[in-house]
Design brief:
The protein has about 180 residues and is an alpha+beta fold. The chain has helices at about 45-50, 75-80, 95-105, 110-125, 140-150, 170-175, and strands at about 5-10, 20-30, 60-65, 80-85, 160.
Amino acid sequence: MSAFLQIDGLCKTYAGNPEPALKHARLHIQRGEFFGLLGPNGAGKTTLISLVCGLLNPDGGSIRLDGHDPAADRNKMKSLIGLVPQEIALYPTLTARENLLFFGSMHGLRGPVLRDRVDIWLERLGLSSAAKRAVGRFSGGMKRRCNLIAGILHEPALVILDEPTAGVDPQSRLLI
C-alpha cells in the first residue's frame, strides 16, 4: 500500500544560497497518521511545508499526495490540504464569522453547508459568543482558534499545522 503522503529524495535550493534548504528528504505518512516535524530554525521545515502545499517547486525528488503531484495539480491540493500557518491569516477588520464564510467559500462551500460548519466550529472552539466581533479585537488565543477553523472548515484529508499553539494561553492550547 502506498503512503498517503509520499516524499522521496526531495531537494530545494534557493537562489543566492549555496546551501540547500532541503536535501534528499524522505517521508512516508499513511492516511490517518499523526506526524510531527521537529527541527531547529533553518532546518527546512517551512520549505517542506511549502513544497507539499504546491507553493514551491522542488529542484529534485518527488512528492505525491493521494497520488497527485502538488506542483502539477494545485487545484486538487486546495481540496486535499488544510494549511494553518504560523502567522495569523485572517482579515482583522472582518468578524470571525465573515472570515470563516469567506475562507469556506474559497474552498467551494456554499449555503447551509457552509453556515452550519462555521457555526459548529465556532461552538467547538469556544468562539460563538465572539462570532460577530472583528478578529482584530480578539486575543492571541482567539485569533489562533479562528485561524485553525479557517484551515479545517473544508474538511481536508491532510491538515498541516505550523506551530498552532505558539504564544497561546493554556485554555486555548487545550481547545486547539
